[in-house]
Specification:
21 helices, Rossmann fold, eight-stranded mixed β-sheet, alpha/beta, globular, N-utilizing Substance Protein B Homolog, Chain A, about 450 residues, single chain
Length: about 450
């Protein structure tokens, strides 16, 4: 039996782990590529196969169901993974059909029975008899509404499409919905944050970021080729995440002796940037992360500093009781659905359900209440999520502020405009919602809050 091509084998292994073990492709794939020592070309192929298949899984499932004459729920999951991987090659890549089919049949032999191999061969032969444009017409013909059509075409769950539409409509930008969904299916550029005092964007072999004053953009390639990245003085970090941290650190001048808290710090990217900013202004940062494995990632992220900030492993919902009125600035980058980072973590769209939002909203509100309690009078708090879903953003802030005393919204767009290198396109509001299609960032929500000083 001939062996499947290594790039395809790795892609299938990662896709199966994502489905079977709740693995994260963005964490597992680099490890598998590093072990395999593939050529840059094969590593690029494995990356495109993995991310492309995961992004368009919903669309490919409709094609497979039509070609197989059965719902995908009746296909063995490993065999379905092989078919999805083949669909990406046949419908979205310039791969020779015979190569895609033959390699997929070889992969099927490693995960399925003899009958499954024949089934894969038959389904793929059916798919190859019709061109990609016609398959698209067939799939979209199943849609009952305009929202369903968008969900099918851009491979997003219908509930996510509706949630995005709600937020964009509130901004008066409903016409941007299709552009947002399309942007979610495009691989993001590699964005680097140069930690102030440790490195500068100018020393990186990259373009200056459009908005972040500490950011740079790579054309491509491995960011570890940059010396500053290898040494931890610069970090791979989305520009939206950089802006979220800088909105807090640069909301006003830093007074020496200020105490800062990153309440939910894992995996540590924002904590590193805040630590650099704090160090430059004579403030000190404490990073808190409840999950031990993530707390260890935070420690590694902060190890670049001569005197790394302290890392706590406390329950964030109780920090306000334990340290009332203690911190001058607090970042609450709250656990969320991650719907704002679907470019980076495409499997998240299939992993989350509408029911997850309610549970997360309860946790987000508890964390925000705790952060407010821990904030010193006159202090500044940044509530941040990597999700634009209204139930994780504006609704959480509004529900907590209805009960909180002496808390006011800070004009976050004005702060961020003062931080950004170029003017951001932001609707009028007290909060900031960044978008992949509009700003080239993850869809970060940022709301600055202030605690009224006691006179």
């Amino acid at each position: 039996m001939s062996q499947p091509q290594p790039a395809r084998r790795i892609a299938l292994d990662v896709i199966m782990a994502v489905r079977d073990s709740d693995a994260y492709a963005n964490l597992l794939l680099p490890v598998r590529l590093g072990r395999a020592k593939l050529s840059p070309e094969d590593a690029g192929l494995a990356t495109e196969l993995t991310y492309g298949t995961l992004r368009m899984q919903g669309y490919y499932d409709r094609v497979i169901a039509l070609a197989a004459g059965r719902d995908v729920s009746r296909i063995d999951p490993p065999v379905l993974d092989v078919l999805r991987l083949a669909c990406h090659q046949l419908l979205s890549m310039r791969v020779a059909q015979h190569a895609a089919v033959d390699e997929s049949v070889e992969l099927a032999k490693t995960v399925g029975s003899r009958s499954a191999v024949g089934f894969v061969n038959g389904v793929l032969r059916t798919i190859t008899r019709t061109d990609a444009a016609t398959w698209r017409e067939r799939v979209l013909a199943e849609a009952q509404t305009g929202e369903e059509r968008l969900a099918l075409e851009y491979s997003h769950p219908l509930w996510v499409v509706r949630a995005f539409r709600q937020v964009l409509t509130a901004e008066g930008r409903e016409a941007e919905l299709e552009g947002l969904l399309a942007a979610d299916n495009v691989a993001p550029r590699v964005s680097i944050a140069a930690l102030p005092g440790e490195s500068t964007p100018a020393e990186l072999d990259a373009y200056p970021a459009e908005f972040s004053p500490v950011g740079a953009i790579l054309d491509g390639g491995d960011p570890l080729q940059l010396k500053a990245v290898r040494e931890g003085r610069a970090r791979v970090q989305d520009e939206g995440s950089q802006l979220a941290a800088l909105a807090l650190s640069r909301a006003r001048p830093i007074a020496a002796g200020e105490r800062w808290l990153d309440l939910c710090a894992g995996p540590g990217g924002k904590a590193a940037l805040l630590a650099a900013e704090a160090l430059g202004g004579g403030a000190t940062l404490v990073a808190n992360e409840l999950v031990p494995a993530r707390a260890e990632l935070v420690r590694k992220a902060l190890a670049v500093f001569d005197s790394p900030p302290e890392v706590w492993e406390l329950d964030g919902t109780l920090v306000g009781e334990q340290f009332p009125g203690f911190f001058d600035r607090i970042l609450l980058d709250a656990p969320c659905t991650g719907l704002g980072a679907l470019r980076r973590r495409p499997e998240a769209r299939w992993r989350k359900q509408p029911s997850d939002v309610a549970g997360l909203g309860t946790l987000q509100a508890k964390l925000l209440g705790s952060a407010i309690a821990a904030l010193k009078p006159g202090g500044v708090l940044a509530y941040v999520t990597c999700s634009p879903h209204a139930a994780e953003t504006k609704s959480v802030v509004a529900s907590v502020l209805r009960k909180a005393q002496g808390i006011e919204r800070i004009d976050t767009p004005a702060v961020l405009q003062s931080v950004a290198r170029e003017r951001l396109d932001l609707p009028e509001a007290s909060h900031v919602q960044l978008w992949p299609h509009r700003h080239g960032t993850d869809a970060m929500f940022i709301q600055l809050l202030g605690k009224v000083a006691v006179l």
